[in-house]
Amino acid sequence: MFQAFRPAAQAAPVVWALLARRPGDNAQIETLAAATGLPVVVKRLELRKGLEALPNLRRTGSLFSYDAATQDALRAAPPPDLVIAAGKRSAPAALWLKARRGSRLLHLGRSWAPGAWFDAVLTTPQYGQPPGPNVVVNLFPLTPPRAEAAGDPGDLAALARPRLLVAAGGDAAGLRFGPAEAAALARRALERQRDDGGALMVATSPRTSAAAAEALKAAIPPSGDRLVSIFGEDPNRYRDFLAAADAAIVTEDSVSMAADAAATGRPVEFFSLTPRRDGSGLLRSALGAIGLDRRGRRRPHRFRARDPRAYERAEDPAAGSTGPPRRGSRRSSPPPRRSPAGWRRKRAELRENHRVMPALLARVSTTSASRPAIPESRGCPAPPGMTAAGGLAWRR
């Protein structure tokens, strides 16, 4: 399938693995690239300072946000047959390679651009990737195949069993992992150790903040039966701890660590974190308050008569109001945008509604005393024993 893009002297397709700053994304890229069984060339992407947040607006991609060394490396010949990338900042380079070098693209996680721009998108449910014919949704992220146990390192082999792995993540969308949560995680781990005996192995991730890591170290000081590995300070022993563990506690923010722990086939406990309102949540709330979604589009509005007897009250002169609910009232919503033809059809519908409304209201008034209470209408057929007027529901 790659013959059109490969030089004649090249025996097998070549895969480029575009690695950026996120270790979790890089681990999945390397896992998938190794699973292809093809020659793999690793390309590390370094961004120019201040350009990390640029949106991906061009189908043909761009190398503008990368430094000179990265641009030279991506322009080097021969071009790759397949590009595997992940994350927002890898997408421009991958799209540029597709447009300029004829490479095929496989993107992991969220595409951060229209999914149709890529040849394939391999994602998991938490990313919310829009569906498409080229989108594959896995239940868990990619994890490297579990190697056969070759014996634990000396310090781990000496630990008493059961060995409990404590895998700490960090802040995520809608979740907070700060010093208070780290202290709570430590209390839970110590409680498990008191109940079950054995040893603790604590490992943090790249997303664990310095304050949370300090709180973990203060609550679980290293000792003979307690090992602590802080990412960035100590050698990363997460994989060693994972292979030696008999059980695990994993914070709920990291799907990758949860998948790693579940792949061992050993008991896994998920530690719940504190919900938080981040900037995206506040933006969604603000847009929802003015009737827009997060892309700035007007939300579709529906007007439903929750209780048909509300029209009886509206027609009652003693209630101080006549006619159907006015536009802008609490029981009405602003209409969606329509074309002129759509407005003409809507006006015709309204004229017909006003023509038949008196008869419907009279029918509701004369039968409401003998009918049971009318449930909230959802646009469904009227319950048995009730007239169509009793299930009246309008939708705009």
UniProtKB/TrEMBL annotation:
Residues 297-396 are annotated as: Disordered. Residues 305-316 have a biased composition (Basic and acidic residues). It holds the Pfam family Mito_fiss_Elm1. This is Mitochondrial fission ELM1 family protein. It comes from Chenggangzhangella methanolivorans.
